[in-house]
């Protein structure tokens, strides 16, 4: 009988676990533009009859935009002014661990974020010298097929507390167009068999590059994916300036946590050096003539920081290229492959 009860208990636990796993956890990434804010209720704290009432909600145009980068379990929320300039940012994790974000003036923002179904709930407090100044809870939920973000905020300090709802719409992102251009770039077989094919291939690449140049010039890159995709299209340009731009963009992608950003930063730097008749220094460009122009003085430890394999592996890669086979070819350092 005891065995039967244990078996039934195990089945119940398994069923609950499956239900939890079945709850869809949405991706909150995107540039969110404020649409409206409404105060649901506000009251003075007990004993604070002389405290001023909370101010009316600001107009939508006065609220900051939110740039959210969400890669489970990491969540970064950046607050931008109407011109897209950074005001401040908060780094969080969705596993319930407390995260500390240092603020100016000796203040600290502490928060813990957890999933409640498809919603993300953050409990936070702002401290100064270890003393709580204000705190609250933000509940984030997506609607309208992921195009609306609703944040229900509850805020309380020693004098008052309030509850508000703010609605944001997903901005028409350059990310979608960049993804399309990137996919076109990756799927382009780049035929060069005839002068006509060469002209058509170069024209397609130039159109992609010109459009991405516009997107970069307008300051529309936001996420690590945006920077990586733009960098790859510049990497497939035709001028030294394109490769140098690719290096800058890929470096930012790496700063933002893109798993291929560091490697592409190295590859674009090597390609730039070769294009100005200087030897490459990280060993990412293969082929007999390219690999012959390789200054090998940098230590493997530096290559590893760029997710580039060590010199010994690079030598094997070059042999594979020379023999026209890719068996065992290792483009990135093994540490980066296992961490992805």
Describe the structure.
With 340 residues, the chain is α+β, with helices and mostly antiparallel strands. The chain folds into two domains: 26-170, Calycin beta-barrel core domain (Lipocalin, Beta Barrel); 174-339. Helix content is 38%, strand content 28%. The protein has ten helices and ten strands. The chain has helices spanning 2-22, 174-187, 195-217, 224-235, 240-255, 261-275, 288-292, 300-305, 311-322, 334-339; strands at 30-44, 65-71, 74-80, 86-93, 99-102, 107-116, 119-128, 131-143, 148-157, 160-170. It has a ten-stranded antiparallel beta sheet with strand order 4-3-2-1-10-9-8-7-6-5, with no helix packed on it. A hairpin with a 2-residue loop joins strand 7 and strand 8. It is elongated, with a radius of gyration of 26 Å.
**Class by SSE composition:** alpha+beta
User: Overall mean pLDDT score?
Assistant: 88
Number of helical segments with 4 or more residues? 10
User: Structurally, how many domains make up the residues?
Assistant: 2
Beta-strand percent range: 25-35%
- Largest pleated sheet: 10 strands, antiparallel
Indicate the low-confidence ranges by residue numbers: 17-22
Strand order of the largest sheet: 4-3-2-1-10-9-8-7-6-5
Q: What portion of residues is helical?
A: 25-40%
How far apart are the first and last residues' alpha carbons, in Å?
47 Å
Q: Looking at the structure, what is the overall shape? A: elongated
Number of DSSP E strands: 10
Order of helices and strands: HEEEEEEEEEEHHHHHHHHH
**Radius of gyration from the CA trace?**
26 Å
